[in-house]
Amino acid sequence: MPEKLPFVVRKYEVRSEKISAPVKFVFLTDFHDKEFDAGNARLIREIHAISPDAVLVGGDMVVSMHAKEESDDWLRRSRHLLEELRKDFPVFAALGNHEAALADEKRGIPACFEAYCGMLDDVGVTRLENSSADFRGIRIHGLAPDRIYYKKLRYRRLDKTVITTLLGDAPKEVFSLLLAHHPRFFAAYAAWGADLTLAGHLHGGMLRIGNRGVISPDPMIFPRYSGGEYHIGNRTMIVSCGLGMHTIPVRICNPPELSVIALLPG
Ligand SMILES: [Fe+2]
After folding, report:
1. Which end of the chain is more exposed for a tag (fewer CB within 10 A), N or C?
2. Are residues 128 and 140 in contact, defined by beta-carbon separation less than 8 angstroms?
3. Is residue 138 scored above 70 in pLDDT?
């Protein structure tokens, strides 16, 4: 009997002429300091069983409200998970709004943001903070926009020029995989040139009815991109329902998600 996991594994396939050989990623996002079992043993075991070429982290590994300068307990579970994964896989990590909240000079705890980045460096994770890295012929970009784009009300609309300012132009010949935590701006990611965008942030919309999430953190009822696969022309966005939660610990008909992304020639 296969082991009953406390999360679902959702598999996606994306084909592109720009892909010359198959590449398999595990995409985890919105971990939010989660502990499914002691040491997250089943999560780590499942990722090993999937045997990806690399692990991609979509941001919000931590809960910013848990962060304290005097103790690193808020960082312990993230560190352990990433340490275990780094033993066997390359890991690329983008940042989410919780990490951006820590970095905020006025309202955040910059020392904790530095501790988070230091942890990634110690563990050997490639941090993608408005930067890019090449992996097996794919360019992986990590977008870390200003916090204003995450505002719940009266947020600023993110457009293509913001992405170009932060990341430069998307390469034309190389497959661009964009880690962009917030799915709201898919049109901008597609216009910029991301062949595939991986996002999270909405935790699947807390309650899912059919294939739709009911509420976003904004809050918006039935947000357009709450979980699953979306297309604009030949651009794709996959939105994971994420692994964790915080503040309002509710997930109904919305199990935690570990995503597997297979990129295939085609
Ligand atoms: Fe988030």
Report:
1. N
2. yes
3. yes
CA of 96 to the centre of ligand 1 (A): 5
Candidates 3.60.21.10, 3.30.365.10, 3.30.40.10, 3.40.50.2000; CATH matching 8-265 = 3.60.21.10
> Can you tell me which residue has the tokens 């943001």?
113
Which DSSP string do the residues of 22-41 spell out, in sequence order?
-EEEEEE---TT--SSGGGH
What's the CA-to-centroid distance between 167 and ligand 1, angstroms?
20
Distance (Å) from CA 30 to ligand 1 centroid: 6
DSSP run (H or E) holding 47? helix 41-50
Average predicted confidence (pLDDT) for the chain: 95
Task: Report how far ligand 1's centroid is from the alpha carbon of 163 (Å).
Answer: 18
pLDDT band for 189, please (50, 70, 90 cuts).
very high
pTM: 0.97
